Amino acid sequence: MVYTPAILGRIPYVSAYIKTLDGVNLTCFVLPQTEESLARDWDVDGADDADDVENKAGVSGVWQPPDDRVDITPAAGRARATIILFHGNACHASDELFTAEKMFKSLRCNVVVAEYRG
Fold first, then answer.
1. C-beta neighbour count of 90 within 10 angstroms
2. What is the residue extent of each domain of the chain?
3. From what superkingdom does this record's organism come (predicted)?
4. How far apart are CA 113 and CA 110, in angstroms?
5. SS3 letters for 31-75?
6. Tens digit of pLDDT per residue, the chain (118 long)?
């Protein structure tokens, strides 16, 4: 099953397409830091993992066509870094959402989960 970052709870995200030269749309998820997320004391040790995905996903966590969830604000520029995360071979960007969540919370970075054909 393919999920969106909605399964991560209160983490802000933007869904976007990258259009290839041959017209294929690749889905990407941008998890930008916000004023709220930078100030929040995340429970990193209690971060959710893939074992709980079915309980959290519900209907809203199932993949839907990309649409904007948040605006990228100046707070994203104050994040420590922006990490671009690629999934493994024969996987989907949604397979890396829990890794992205841990980076977002513990490193306080913006995270871009990029899709590619591979």
1. 7
2. 5-114
3. Eukaryota
4. 10
5. ECCCHHHHHCCCCCCCCCCHHHHHHHHCCCCECCCCCECCCCCHH
6. 778 888 888 889 988 888 899 999 888 999 999 999 899 888 776 544 444 444 444 445 555 555 545 677 888 988 989 999 998 888 888 889 999 999 999 999 999 999 888 6
